[in-house]
Design goal:
Strand order of the largest sheet: 6-3-2-1-7-10-12-13
CATH topology: Rossmann fold
CATH architecture: 3-Layer(aba) Sandwich
Helix content: 25-40%
Oligomer: single chain
Largest sheet: 8 strands, mixed
Number of helices: 5
CATH class: Alpha Beta
Radius of gyration: 15 Å
Order of helices and strands: HHHEHEEEEEEEEHEEEE
Shape: globular
Structural class: alpha/beta
CATH superfamily: NagB/RpiA/CoA transferase-like
């Protein structure tokens, strides 16, 4: 199982690296619009959203939209290997480089318990039509998502939305929907 996931991860990283910058910008804009148009997003009071690296689907516009609309926004902070907390932010300017080069809030920002979160936006390298996602192998999001009943949306390039099931383990948590630049796919 781990070898199969590792091979798929390597393939998806190569596909992602080959994306032209202009295509990325157009895709990211379309995904942002789709997320912000979701009923679950619009009705959510507290939003949890990953902070994208340069290669991932951008989330700054989603975070900014949530802040402008008065939503409580929290983003991940890596604490120990495999463990992250949700920390409240008031501005993107509060983020600093953290583990793995990912922007995160400082340690003094308030922790938001997973039970308080209404809507989670999570990254993925690829996803399947059943809502399962392939991440980077650290298990951070699966460990976090099993603590919340929030609506979960994974952001995925349409070209990496797989029509065959991903290899999965008992600890893998499916998302409520997969948001691509072409469609929002939901099993629920």
């Amino acid at each position: 199982m781990h070898a199969e996931k590792a091979l798929l991860r390597k393939k998806m990283l190569a596909l992602r690296a080959a994306e032209p910058p202009e295509a990325r910008r157009l895709r990211d804009r379309a995904i942002t619009e789709a997320v912000c148009g979701l009923d679950a997003y619009q009705s959510a009071h507290t939003i949890f959203c990953y902070c994208a690296t340069a290669e991932e689907i951008a989330t700054d516009a989603i975070i900014s939209n949530a802040l402008v609309h008065g939503k409580r926004v929290c983003v991940p902070r890596c604490e120990r290997p495999g463990e992250m907390t949700a920390r409240e932010i008031q501005s993107l300017h509060e983020l600093i480089p953290g583990k793995f080069g990912i922007r995160e809030p400082q340690a003094d920002r308030p922790i938001i318990s997973p039970e308080e979160i209404d809507f989670c936006i999570v990254p993925c390298l690829c996803a399947d039509l059943q809502g399962f996602r392939l991440g980077y192998g650290g298990g951070y999001y699966d460990r976090f998502l099993c603590q919340t009943s929030a609506f979960t949306a994974a952001l995925c390039d349409f070209s990496r939305l797989l029509h065959t099931p991903l290899p999965r383990e008992a600890t893998d948590i499916p998302c409520d929907c997969i948001v691509t630049e072409r469609q929002v796919h939901s099993e629920k």
